[in-house]
Design goal:
heterodimer; A: 240 residues; alpha+beta; 5-stranded mixed beta sheet; 9 helices; B: 574 residues; 8-stranded mixed beta sheet; 4-stranded antiparallel beta sheet; 16 helices
Chain lengths: 240, 574
């Protein structure tokens, strides 16, 4: 079948303003949208820029906006868009476009870094040269967080990050903080809660659930943000 | 732009980050990666990391060492296999102390599960040795290392493509390349450089590896005069999703999954009566293709089934959620209800840049250390995997030898001065890009790459013979010639992925040529290298490592002996 892709284009060396190009690609219903983009770059237009690597939803490179939704291009198939006349491919929102579908990810990774208290990630002092003990139940408290691949789809879909509070640390960084705060082995959770309690931290979230809806790894992002807020109230503010 | 560091690490996977973390205890370290560091392919490792912790049942490092040596079809250097098995437990504990969220057992210890080729008491029965975090073990190890590197202040240069090692008076003095975002040259001057860019699975049509796996460091080493070791040994993982090659972790069989042919038979009982579906990967891949060749594929097609339906939804969700997710997304299959169509997929390179136990690159492949140059991980060959790597031994290799390399780099940096750079090093990289962009060639990357992948998958796959390999070598050499007439349609400098594709293709063609060339020379069958025309292992003539050098007369081969310490080579049955 012939699939029409309408793709956002912007070349900083040539263009004053963005435009959209349409491409027609021969495809099977089981082809990934990433496969179609590859066919375009390899066979039709070598200038098309987008990031990708593993092509099976584990490296997190190819986050983009497909028909208005933040997605991984390698996790969406042609058959997922059977009802559409064309597939509209645009960069992630929130981030600055550098070229075509490539956005500036530096602010995203800076936000991830900011969840760590400066200096080090403090663990409980191990009692021996063996592993710290952790029960299956304790380990389960952050099992969902470690699915995160830092693709930034959640941030791109978040109305707070988009408009209401552009300085918001963002859902992905809160999931990263949650991963450490809810890990029974980590002893600096108060410092992390303090970071999350700051302006533009966890309290900026208004539970739109957009992050949860788009997460390609099906992480219950909003739930974890709420858990961080509850822990700030119960542990941090109780004690201060 | 010229940057100065004590040490520069090329590649941000688990080997690179482990070394970076270790070296950064005393050195200024930069990590250079052509993709964002957290996108590195170590993150795709699913099943686990082998270590004889004995948390679930009795286990000993000697058993682990034996399994590694037997799994390697006796080609691993046994002094290195001993280091791997001995240091694995402390490396797992060290990772746990860094915060790696391993799955736990009822006592709160790190849980362990079975894996292919790992046995109790020198081959008696499967043993629980793999430490894991569901089926995303690589991801969580890499994330922990990344976070620690961040807070430690390791400087990461994302989206920088390394093109050439810089060498002065026989000493490595840095590495250079270009910035993807701008096309500008970038040079790193350093006392020590570690190569850690992983494998080159993408030279094959069907592979479990990322698009980024294009053998970049192999090319850096060859161009610096360093040989590549044992490149003929390419691992084909038995269970790639049919048609796509995406990995279905061996953990699926470790948790009880069963391979069945078109007649519904559990065929591995015939090939490996003791370990069955947990036999090493080379043996299972050959078994699957033999079943298909003899007409026992499914519905007359070239795949078999991996049956997980008896494991139950809950176990699949807890232990194999990535795998069940892949199958659902790409095949529309619920793994608890429908068996998964699978076929072998290119997965791992056992061979690579020869190093010693400290990760120091051996300039002649034998004993001569290349001052200031290190390698670790899949792109290196130390050699612990020999002719076939066991599942979960890759993550151990990355951490054990990444850590050793990091420690030795710290020592080397303390004892040595910063060597001078060659004159105008940036010009080298600027002119390389310029000549590519100005080329009027008509060949396209996509066409040559597809031809290479088809050639490798048809003629240098699980089963090989003289006629196919000879044809493949001719074909790859023709493609290398055509590649000199490559044209780049897009002339811009910012994020010119067409240019990057072209550089990667050049690297892949070099890797492909060394693999076919090495495979053609080795007239025996050992581990993953199976020659239909020489179906037996021949220890008298071939118990030795292949070394391939790039010379002005083309590739040249030498050999070096295998280190045998505790375990004399024996017939390899499971």
């Amino acid at each position: 079948m012939l699939v029409k892709l309408k793709v956002f284009r912007f070349d900083p060396e040539r263009d004053k303003a963005p435009r959209y190009d349409s491409f027609y690609v021969e495809a099977k219903p089981t082809d990934r949208i990433l496969d179609l983009l590859n066919k375009i770059r390899w066979e039709q237009d070598g200038s098309l820029a987008y990031r990708m690597s593993c092509a099976h939803g584990i490296c997190g490179s190819d986050g983009m906006t497909i028909n208005g939704v933040s997605e991984l291009a390698c996790q969406k198939l042609v058959r997922d868009y059977e009802e559409s006349k064309e597939v509209l491919v645009e960069p992630l929102s929130v981030f600055t476009v550098v070229k075509d579908l490539v956005v500036d990810m530096e602010p995203f990774f800076e936000q991830e870094k900011a969840v760590h208290p400066p200096g080090k990630i403090a663990l409980l002092q191990p009692v021996s040269n063996r592993e710290n003990l952790q029960s299956i139940e304790e380990r389960a408290l952050f099992d969902d967080d470690i699915k995160c691949i830092m693709c930034a789809c959640c941030v791109s879909a978040c109305p707070i990050s988009q408009k209401e509070d552009p300085a918001y640390v963002g859902p992905a960084a809160i999931v990263r903080a949650h991963r450490y705060i809810f890990d029974s082995r980590i002893k600096d959770s108060m410092e992390r809660l303090t970071i999350m309690d700051k302006p533009h931290g966890a309290w900026s979230c208004k539970s739109y659930f957009k992050c949860t809806q788009v997460c390609p790894k099906e992480i219950q992002v909003t739930k974890h943000v709420l858990e961080v807020k509850r822990r700030i109230l119960n542990e941090l503010r109780q004690k201060t | 732009m010229i940057h100065q560091y004590d040490a520069v690490i090329v590649g941000a996977g688990i080997a690179g980050l482990t070394a970076a973390l270790k070296a950064s205890e005393t050195c200024r370290v930069a990590v250079v990666s052509k993709i964002y560091a957290s996108r590195s392919h170590s993150g795709a490792a699913q099943g686990g990391m082998a270590a004889a912790l004995g948390n679930e049942e009795e286990d000993h490092w000697e058993w682990h060492m034996f399994d590694t040596v037997k799994g390697s079809d006796y080609l691993a250097d046994q002094d290195m296999a001993e280091i791997l098995a001995r240091e694995a437990p402390e490396c797992v504990i060290e990772l746990e102390h860094l915060g790696v969220p391993f799955s736990r057992n009822g006592q709160g210890k790190i849980d362990q599960r079975r894996f292919g080729g790992h046995t109790r008491n020198f081959g008696e029965a499967p043993v629980k040795r793999s430490c894991y975090a569901s089926d995303r073990t690589g991801r969580v190890i890499m994330d922990a290392l990344y976070d620690h590197c961040m807070v430690r202040g390791v400087k990461i240069f994302n989206e920088v493509f390394a093109r050439q090692l810089l060498v002065t008076n026989g000493k490595c003095c840095g590495v250079g390349g270009y910035v993807l975002a701008t096309g500008e040259p970038i040079v790193f001057q350093a006392k020590a450089v570690l190569l850690a860019t992983g494998g080159c699975g993408k030279i094959f049509k069907t592979a479990s590896t990322a698009f980024a796996a294009t053998g970049d460091c192999g090319q850096l080493a060859l161009d610096a005069g360093v040989p590549l070791e044992d490149m003929e040994f390419v691992q084909f993982h038995p269970t790639g999703i049919y048609g796509l090659g995406i990995l279905v972790s061996e953990a699926a069989r470790a948790e009880g999954g069963i391979l069945r042919n078109g007649k519904g038979e559990r065929f591995m009982e015939r090939y490996a009566p003791t370990l069955k579906d947990l036999a090493p990967r080379d043996i299972i891949s050959r078994a699957i293709l033999t079943e298909i060749r003899e007409g026992r594929g499914v519905n007359g097609k070239d795949y078999v089934l991996l049956d997980l339906t008896h494991l139950g939804k809950e176990q699949l969700e807890q232990k194999l959620s990535e795998v069940t997710g892949f199958v659902k997304t790409y095949l529309g299959i619920e793994a608890d209800k429908t068996p998964i169509p699978v076929a072998p997929t290119c997965h791992y390179m056992m061979g690579g840049i020869p190093t010693d136990a400290q990760g120091r690159v051996l300039a002649d492949g034998q004993a001569k250390v290349f001052a200031g140059l290190y390698a670790a991980g899949e792109c290196a060959c130390v050699s612990v995997h020999g002719a076939n790597r066991l599942g979960t031994n890759s993550l151990v290799d990355l951490v054990v030898f990444g850590r050793r390399a990091g420690a030795d780099i710290a020592k080397y940096v303390a004892e040595n001065q910063l060597p001078p750079l060659p004159e105008n090093p940036e010009d080298l990289f600027a002119s390389e890009i310029k000549s590519f962009l100005e080329s009027s060639g008509k060949e396209t990357t996509a066409f040559i790459r597809e031809d290479m992948q088809r050639t490798m998958s048809q003629m240098c796959n699980v089963f090989r013979d003289e006629a196919d390999l000879t044809k493949a070598l001719g074909k790859i050499r023709d493609l290398k010639t055509n590649n000199r007439s490559l044209g780049i349609s897009y002339k811009g400098l910012a994020f010119n992925y067409e240019l990057e594709d072209a550089f990667e293709l050049g690297n892949m063609l070099k890797a492909a040529e060394t693999i076919v060339f090495s495979a053609l020379q080795r007239k025996e069958s050992r581990g993953a290298h199976y020659r239909s025309d020489y179906p037996n292992r021949d220890d008298t003539r071939w118990l030795k490592h292949t070394l391939v050098f790039q010379t002005s007369n083309g590739l040249e081969v030498q050999y070096k002996s295998v280190v045998v310490t505790r375990f004399e080579p024996k017939a390899r049955t499971y």
